[in-house]
Every structure is written in structure tokens, then in C-alpha cells.
């Protein structure tokens, strides 16, 4: 993992990967790298939390391992699972070759070998470090899964009952994100550096649009950023994020339009009530 000299160096490396981080996010990223601490990013959907992890991995030149959280996620999807078909084939092969000379205990011991273990994201991150592990949308997972993560966050280690404790030779950079659809427990937050990722200013958002869409004119990027900022002032069910602003600019560029209008609201808003509200207002 590169040894960045300062938060400014982290910001420059992220910019080289196409991600424009503000001063606070660059500081959080620098401290996470220097102190080997996980970073917990919270904010509205579409503000660039997931993209930060991808850009950080690209800037550092390491692998990005992503674990998408969802309700019902457990150890078999997050940590490991046993390759049952291969275990059965191995058992039959050994029984045939041994002609009954091995005891049941000896046969069973051979089944729980590392070669029969299917590594899921958490175990892959431990074994392949240095890398960036993205635990995306932790607020979608159950409370029990948060408790399951604590060993990884605090000690960069996981436990497989049949094999014992596996510790990363070098702590992976762990980025945990949340859209705040529910409150995440303090035990998880205490093990992380915290940063709230807010919506950018119109000026910065225009810069982001230009970086992600070099073919879009500077004028159109400014118009889209300003219009997106005005939409966020309304009482919308789902305010648009940076991702939607980029999509909007791409759509308008494809249409050859000079400015955003209500006819393309379906690109930036995804709730019918929000579209009706904007059309009834005078923000566009």
C-alpha cells in the first residue's frame, strides 16, 4: 500500500483516478491509511461513497473487494462456505484408495482442509491484503451482521471454526458505507473513523461532471449542477445525488440540449411524486 505523505497527496491520487474528494474526505482517507483504521462513510444515496472506495483502490494500485449488504446476509455469503460437492468427491476417493484402513475421524479431518473452503469477501480481503474492502450499505444488513463484522474491523482477522483464526499479514483498508436508512450501532462506529459525505456545492458538482464526462461542455455541466442543487431544496422523497447529476448531464449531452428541463426528469428523479412536485414548481 503506498505511503501517502499528506491528505493533499491522497486527494491528488484520487483525482488521478477520476474522483474529486473534498478536504474532509481526503483527510479521512489519509488517516485511515496511516492509522490502519476502517473508515465509515455515511450520507445520502448517490453522493459518492461507493465510488470513493473504488477510486482509493485504483489510486493505491490494489484490488477492490466488494461486499454488498442486504437483509439476511450471513457468514456463508460474507465470510466462507464449504465446497460440499468437492468434499464428497474427496471422501469417496479416499475411501476407495484406503480400502477401509482409515477411521471415521481421519476421513472427517481431511474434509475440512483449506482447499475445500470457498472464500467470500471478508476472507478474501484477509488473505489478499493489501487491498481495499468495501462493505457497501451496511444499513441494509441485519443487526446481527454488524456484530459479526467487529472482529474484522478491530483486528483484521476472521475465525473459521474448523480452521481457527486467520489474520491478515497487512490490514486491508476497510470502507464501510451507509445510506442511513437505519441507525448503525455504536460498537461498529467506535471501531471506525467517521465521515459524513454530503452533497457537493454546485461548483464542485460541475467539476465532478466534467471529470466523469469530458465530452460535456462546461456550460452544460454548470447548468446541470445548478438545476440539481435547486431540486434538492424541494421536499423530495429521494433527492438526486451526484450519480444522478452525471446521468442527467450524459442524457442532455446525448440529446444535444443546452440546459436541463422537465422532459428529462426521469433521468434524475426516480419517484413519480417527486417528478410531479418538480413539474408543479418553478425550479426548472
From TrEMBL:
Residues 35-212 form the AAA+ ATPase domain. Pfam families: AAA_5. InterPro entries: AAA+_ATPase (IPR003593), ATPase_dyneun-rel_AAA (IPR011704), CbbQ/NirQ/NorQ/GpvN (IPR050764), P-loop_NTPase (IPR027417). This is MoxR family ATPase. It comes from Dactylosporangium roseum. The lineage of its organism: Bacteria, Bacillati, Actinomycetota, Actinomycetes, Micromonosporales.
